[in-house]
């Protein structure tokens, strides 16, 4: 496929996945990092109340 055709498909919003070689794809900045936040207790309590009905770990 010519670059112009590829660009046109992309610009037109067409799905171009089938034209890409994803065998060696890498996600940049995918390293996990631990960070710490300090919040007032009322914010923690509000977060806990919001997370419980949704079964979200806090």
Automatic annotation (TrEMBL):
Protein name as it appears in the record = CopG family transcriptional regulator
């Amino acid at each position: 496929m010519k670059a112009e055709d590829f660009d046109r498909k992309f610009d037109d919003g067409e799905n171009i996945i089938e034209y890409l070689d994803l065998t060696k794809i890498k996600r940049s900045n995918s390293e996990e990092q631990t960070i710490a936040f300090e919040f007032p207790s009322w914010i923690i309590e509000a977060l806990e109340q919001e997370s419980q009905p949704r079964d979200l770990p806090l």
